[in-house]
Amino acid sequence: MSNLSGRPPVWSYWVVLPLFVLIWALAAWLLESPLLPTPLSVLDTLVAEAVSGELWRHLGATLSRVIVAFVLAMLLGTAIGIAMGRSKTTNALFDPMLVLLLNLPALVTIILMYVWFGLVEVAAVMAVVINKVPNVAVTVREGARSLDHRLEDMATVYDFTRWQRFREVWVPQLFPYLMAATRGGLALIWKIVLVVELLGRSNGIGFQLHMAFQVFDVAAILAYSLAFIAVVQLIELAILQPLERRSSRWRQPEAAHA
Amino acid sequence: MLELQIAGRSFGQPVLGEVLATIERGDHICLLGPSGIGKTTLLNAIAGLDKTIPAEAIIGREKLRVGYLFQEHRLLPWRTLNANLRLAGASSEEAEAHLVSVGLEGYGHYLPDQLSLGMARRAALARCLAVKPDLLLLDEPFASLDPVMADGLKTLIAGILDANPGMAMICVTHDGGDAEILANRLWYLDGKPARLQWDDKVGEPGLIGGLLGKLRRLDLAGS
Questions:
Q1: Tens digits of per-residue pLDDT, A128-180?
Q2: Domain residue ranges in chain B
Q3: pTM of the shown model
């Protein structure tokens, strides 16, 4: 009751997850099956893969695909979203296409790209981008529709250049939408990248999962998944959260001066 | 300096009728009229914000620098006052000087939302000055200010007009008292669709009050 406002107590972050690991350890210890390795043996596998260098090679391959696909999807999706949010005609023209792409299963895009362009890197990245662009576009379109027309008029009167209008008027208003697209994007993209790798690449975490699956090496499957979850969490903590804090500082001016 | 040949403007139903007028340098016009009659619509048309009104209807605007004081401050809330003024074309030093001239010395690093309404409006006025305007458009500059603040702002605007004799001003207001202090010319907008019912120089003091009374009675009789 005392925490209706303000921060929750620090310990509350450290209850459910450790408890989950504990239950996992207990179950694994009771079952003694290779299909459910203990947390410690997963950690052992992780360390062994890291020492041999395999982990870094595959992690690097997956991460670079994620980054390239993410940047392309964000750029394209933002441009399409702004165009559709600003012009009703553009929206009417492309909306049916957007609905189609939104509901196209990721697996279908991936298969089609591989069938049409072969098992090459470009096809892999393109498949991921095509999957992600509609989500970004829909989110950003929502933001572009809610742009404040009063500030638009102001920018017109004061002769803002196109760049100033984009950088000073639009981006700050679109920022929460871009952040939402980024968060959702990272989570979605790395999962799609794994499927892409599983189906047609010879490196990356998806490829390793494929290999582990064929020999039912559950410890390796968990080790590689955990490694990438850790990377995504690191991106959130080291890049996204500081960026968000910096960009929304104006929302809480320290001292009201009324 | 500026010639208006506006054919009209409708939002579903006609709001603005034909508006023909000429604005000269040094004209200090107060635009009066009942609320909701289309005063802001006319001001937006003059500022070129109304895309449905062809540019040829406002002859001479291309060559003019226009400073527009909106009803809300419309400063970018994520930029400091100084940065807001720089976006209007001032250098950092000029921005500070403009802020000083509206009584906001030392507030350059403040964000707009840290200011009171009256201060924010003066900051927005400073931004108008930052474009070194030939034409100053003021939309209800004294609305929702307490009388002391409103008087302060009136004195400030009158001072700015005195210091820049070539500057023209159009000030939307519904208070004839504002016109007594600021205007040397009076527009009265009324009717359906709205037209300029009165466009003349301001004569001796006290005239405006009587005139407004007459115009309003005329309006009542007509409707």
A1: 999 999 999 999 999 999 999 999 999 999 999 999 999 999 999 999 999 99
A2: 2-222
A3: 0.82
- Looking at CA atoms only, how far is residue A255 from chain B in angstroms? 7
Q: A residues 90-119 near B, CB within 8 Å?
A: none
Interface check A245 vs B, CB under 8 A: no
What is the phi-psi region of residue A47: left when phi exceeds 0, alpha when psi lies from -120 to 50, beta otherwise?
A: alpha
Cα–Cα distance measured from residue B176 to residue B205, given in angstroms and rounded to the nearest whole number: 11
Find out if CATH 1.10.3720.10 is the number for domain A56-201.
Answer: yes
Q: Of A156, A157, A250, which has the smallest distance from its Cβ to B77's Cβ?
A: A250
Which residues are CB-neighbours of B192 under 8 A, at least 6 positions away? B14
Q: Are B4 and B55 in contact (CB under 8 A)?
A: no
Cα–Cα separations (whole angstroms), residue B77 to A4, B12, B74, B142: 29, 33, 8, 21
Higher pLDDT, B157 or B35: B157
Do B101 and B126 meet the contact criterion of CB atoms below 8 Å apart? yes
Strand positions, DSSP E, B70-220? 135-139, 168-172, 185-190, 195-201
Query: Residue A55's Cα: distance from chain center in Å?
Result: 21
For domain B2-222, say whether CATH 3.40.50.300 is its number.
Answer: yes
Q: Calculate mean pLDDT across residues A237-244.
A: 90
**What is the ipTM score, two decimals?**
0.85
Residue in chain A lying closest to B115 (CA): A257
Please give the single-letter amino acid code of residue A39.
P
Residue A57 in contact with residue A207, Cβ under 8 Å?
A: no
**What is the three-state SS of A152-206?**
HHHHHHCCCCHHHHHHHHHHHHHHHHHHHHHHHHHHHHHHHHHHHHHHHCCCCHH
Question: According to the model, what pLDDT value does residue A182 have?
Answer: 92
| pLDDT score of B205 | 57
Cβ <8 Å between A250 and B88: no
pLDDT value of residue A147: 94
